[in-house]
Amino acid sequence: MLPPLRIVRYGLRRTTEALAAELAGPGSATPAWSELEWRLATAVAVAHGVSPLLCRCCAWKKPSWRRFLEGQRAHVELRHRRIASLLKRIDADARVAGLAMVPLKGAALHALGIYAPGERPMADIDLLVREEDAAATITLLLDLGYVESFAQWKHRVFKPASGQPFAGLGEHRDTPVNIELHTRIRERLPVSAVDITARIYPREPRPGLNPYLSNGALMAHLLLHTAGNMCGRSLRLLHLHDIARLATHLSANDWDVLWNDNAVEPPWWALPPLRLAARYYPEAVPADVLARLERDCPLLLRAISRRQSLTRVSCSELWLHAFAGIEWSRSVHEAGRYLRNRVSPPDEARKERADMVRTQLWLQGQSWVTAPHRRRVLTWLTQPVPRMDTLYVVRAALEPPVPKASRKLSLVVSR
Predict the structure, then answer these.
(1) What is the rounded CA–CA span in Å between residue 55 and residue 117?
(2) CA-to-CA distance for 370 and 376, rounded, in angstroms?
(3) I need a labelling partner for 122 at 20 to 30 A (CA). Which of 73, 111, 164, 319 fits?
């Protein structure tokens, strides 16, 4: 049985903001939390992907907390070795096949030395390929023993033909490594797509794995990815930490990549992620970059982003928001499209939801997610509705410890 949800909600908010502050500026005193709050802190650390990072920087004197962090770091380091080995094999096979690929986000940050093995979890491998190379790349993945799990407008997801995800709390070394195949880098904010593929893909790619066009291109991708997650209320503390870590490696020319790709529109979407990163990591983001982005950002979004917190735009906010992300609309017409899609989802959105229910462990067996859409809308508008992903990780954190010999941990959120 869960505690009253109002208590869970308060505990999630309190522990989320405390962990964010400790990760950005280690050295605070051990919190005087209740046992429930310590359990919720483990849920937050897992949901936000920062448990192995906290293992190095957080010195809070709570034995069960230390054991949890140390165990998570060990699993992430072992899993990293599997991912690195798989990337080497993909690189070799792509060279033979004459296919150019760009490993995205976490893999790129590791390749730059931004993170050491065991610091940053990676739920999967993201690969960017040219549209004309997609079919050959799929053949390569099938030869590696992968099968297609589902496809959506952003990417196609492949999973190992054998192996099942573990049910439980946190990272596990044996969790299957999925591969997400992209031919474009884009996000819907909230209904119109922003596409930055031209900023990402190298001008002279070679067969095998290629780096981003520049470190500035990697930052542009991190910011757009974070913007999409903020829009959908699914931000993770790891996203902000990625931005802060990479920001310390950027020159003024790297920041200029946000504007220098001859884009039709300026990077209006970059201000909310950078402003939120600067809230928790005030020394990481140059003030002149923020000032320049303020001129590009729509007035309403600019105003709202001043008041946002990590909890407010992440899964640490327990309640679902019926119209999450509408503030990212840049016109009355776009807001109207968003509202129509919420009330009557298009076929593509319905299929995407069905794929999520079929493939995501935290959605399976939940009557709410399979209820008719009209019923869900009515419930949103009349009463607080808790998030299923948040409840899943909270329940896992509150379960009594199992014997070590039979303990099975796993990822509970996607990145």
Answers:
(1) 13
(2) 9
(3) 319
Q: Tell me whether strands 178-182 and 193-195 are parallel, antiparallel or unpaired.
A: unpaired
Residue that is written with structure tokens 């950078």 in the block:
274
Tokens representing 113?
Answer: 């030395």
The model's pLDDT over 92-116, given as tens digits with 9 standing for 90+, comes to 999 999 999 999 999 999 999 999 9
Q: Please say whether the beta carbons of 73 and 79 come within 8 A.
A: no
pTM of the model: 0.92
Whether residue 412 has pLDDT greater than 60 = no
Q: How far is CA 332 from the centre of its chain?
A: 29
The model's pLDDT over 240-266, given as tens digits with 9 standing for 90+, comes to 999 999 999 999 999 999 997 655 689
Amino acid identity at 293:
L
**At 186, phi and psi to the nearest 5?**
-155, 160
The two three-digit tokens of residue 12, written as one number: 């999630």
89/311 Cα distance (integer angstroms): 39
Q: How far apart are CA 269 and CA 294, in angstroms?
A: 10
For residues 116 and 170, the answer to whether their CB atoms sit within 8 Å is: no
Q: Tokens representing 354?
A: 């069905």
CA angle, 355 then 237 then 218, to 5°: 80
Q: Alpha-carbon distance 217 to 141, whole Å?
A: 26
CA–CA separation, 181 vs 253, rounded Å?
A: 29
Residue type, 147: V
Given 3-state DSSP classes, what are the helix, strand and coil percentages for the chain, each rounded to the nearest 5? Answer: 55, 10, 35
DSSP H/E element including 254 = helix 252-256
